[in-house]
Amino acid sequence: MSLPVLFTPAAVSELIEAEDWHEAQMPGLGVQFRIALDRAVASIAEQPHRFPVVFQDVVRRALLRRFPYGLYFCIEPDADLAASFCGFGCGDRRPVRATCLIPALR
Known about the structure:
Helices cover 41% and strands 24% of the residues. A hairpin with a 3-residue loop joins β2 (53-55) and β3. The radius of gyration is 13 Å and the shape is elongated. It has a five-stranded mixed beta sheet with strand order 1-5-4-3-2. The chain has helices spanning 9-25, 29-46, 98-105; strands at 5-7, 53-55, 59-63, 69-74, 83-90. It has one domain: RelE-like (YaeB-like fold, 2-Layer Sandwich), CATH 3.30.2310.20. It contains three helices and five strands; from the N terminus they run βααββββα. α1 (9-25) packs antiparallel against α2. InterPro entries: RelE/ParE_toxin_dom_sf.
């Protein structure tokens, strides 16, 4: 059974910015990025516990195929959802900003 997945406003902004950037680099690349993103989100909705914990014993990371990005999320055990996204990171950049991490950990 697949459960809903929620995004923080900060994560949504970062995802849109990344999709737009890829599309500007090469037409169609933004669409490919979005497909990879949608597949990662679907995997998280189906099996959120399969992804490794990478920060503060609660934040997990799902890597996107073909793109150097990770989706950072927290599983919400008391809610009817698989995860809430608290950040989005590229390569070696710091994975999450404090402003988007704090609401997800409450």
